[in-house]
Design a protein that fits this description.
about 350 residues; Isopropylmalate Dehydrogenase; 2 domains; two-stranded antiparallel ribbon; 12 helices; about 20% strand; binds 1,4-dihydronicotinamide adenine dinucleotide; binds magnesium ion; Isopropylmalate_DH; oxidoreductase; NAD
Length: about 350
């Protein structure tokens, strides 16, 4: 198979972790006879330094010309003072919008080897943590009209939250289809007791649910969902929600699995071309030290193989190799514990590659 992959290394630990994901992809190419072309794309803080904008036109075009986008992380304190219109995160929002990536999928799953890393009580972890957060990604308050004005002598700011039926319908379909491939249960999270957007959300989700009689659909208010995720995460299979609720709940869901360095994500749209990235940021506090955990980045490359290229077996092999490396007692600094072997970022990449090569 021949594919073009846009690579955005971005800032902070971005270049370090992305290099490890590319090592793993090259190993997969070799083993399965694929040919991937890697197209480096400059975006984020580094693009502000070089071009004065976080997403130069050429960078966006390179993403649109590729079969898939693999992103590490962008941003850092160095760019905190820049004009909000060119901030590093703007590049991500623009790519999501331009590529029409309306669905963000984030697995919240605990590796059996790392159960002790969860901040939750053992009795809760034992019941199992394995669900998928499906977050709407290009609507809602993050994309609504923003205004800061002076009203009666003081500043007043507003951000509009809006959703159209079609925006809700397509993400609901993503959720039900995802549940079909999992355990057939959708919990839709909203704030329908207060918000009009949520009342519309609920109505449309229920309509879509009719098309999936084999999948169960339950509503949950967002404040309750925040509690239930820590009280009994085993009740969730697929959790679908709007953009801002999903941003917050998916971070909460990732934290209960232990380390932020382990979790991948996929952002998908109508076309096969999606964007794949670990959920963490650019971790400026550990950048340049070769100690970041590349596993979330490597698993993101795996999700890309599965969702963008239909290479399910290759994705499974990457996931199995990661599990094997953890079972063999290898850890990065963020998940290090007594009696285990600590690896640097590049050593972890090497160990995963070695395991992929030797696995039968
Ligand atoms: P962060 O996720 O970068 O870091 C939070 C903590 O987790 C830090 O202590 C960091 O060292 C640690 N950490 C993160 N990834 C790790 C990894 N792979 N291995 C080991 N430890 C890891 O979040 P923070 O500090 O709030 O943000 C830093 C910068 O990243 C900010 O400029 C922020 O805007 C940006 N950011 C970018 C995102 C993206 O590109 N998608 C997402 C979130 C934040
Ligand atoms: Mg976030």
């Amino acid at each position: 198979m021949e594919k073009r992959i846009a690579l955005i290394e971005g800032d902070g630990i971005g270049p370090e972790i992305l290099a490890e994901a590319v090592k793993v992809l090259r190993c997969i190419e070799e083993r399965y006879g694929h040919h991937f072309t890697y197209v480096p794309v400059c975006a984020g803080g580094c693009a502000i330094d070089r071009y004065g904008t976080s997403l130069p036109k050429e960078s966006l075009e390179a993403c649109l010309d590729s079969d898939s986008v693999l992103l590490a992380a962008v941003g850092g304190p160095k760019w905190d003072g820049v004009d909000p219109s060119i901030r590093p995160e703007k590049a991500l929002l623009a790519i999501r919008k331009e590529l029409g990536l309306y669905a963000n999928l984030r697995p919240a799953r605990i590796f059996s080897q790392l159960k002790h890393a969860s901040p939750l009580k053992e009795s809760i972890v034992e019941k199992g943590i394995d669900f998928m957060v499906v977050r709407e990604l290009i609507g809602g308050v993050y994309f609504g009209e923003k205004k800061t004005e002076t009203v009666e002598g003081e500043l007043r700011a507003s951000d509009q939250m809006a959703y159209s039926e079609h925006e809700i319908r397509r993400i609901a379909h993503t959720a039900f289809q995802t549940a079909r491939k999992r355990n057939g249960r959708v919990i839709s999270v909203d704030k329908a007791n207060v918000l009009d957007t949520s009342r519309l959300w609920r109505k449309v989700v229920h309509e879509v649910a009719q098309e999936y009689p084999d999948v169960s659909c339950t509503d949950m208010l967002v404040d309750n969902a925040a509690m239930q995720i820590v009280k009994d995460p085993s009740q969730f299979d697929v959790l679908v929600t709007e953009n801002m609720f999903g941003d917050i709940l998916s971070d909460e869901a990732s934290m209960i699995t232990g380390s932020i360095g382990l979790i991948p994500s996929a952002s998908l749209g109508e076309s096969r071309r999606g964007m794949y990235e670990p959920i963490h940021g650019s971790a400026p506090d550990i950048a340049g030290k070769n100690i970041a955990n590349p596993i979330g980045m490597i698993l993101s490359a795996g999700l890309m193989l599965k969702y963008a290229f239909d290479l399910d077996e290759e994705q499974k092999r990457i996931e199995d190799a990661v599990e094997q490396v953890l079972s063999d007692g290898y850890r990065c600094a963020d998940i290090m514990e007594e009696g285990k072997t600590q690896l640097s970022c590049s050593e972890m990449g090497d160990q995963i590659v070695k395991t992929i090569r030797t696995m039968s």
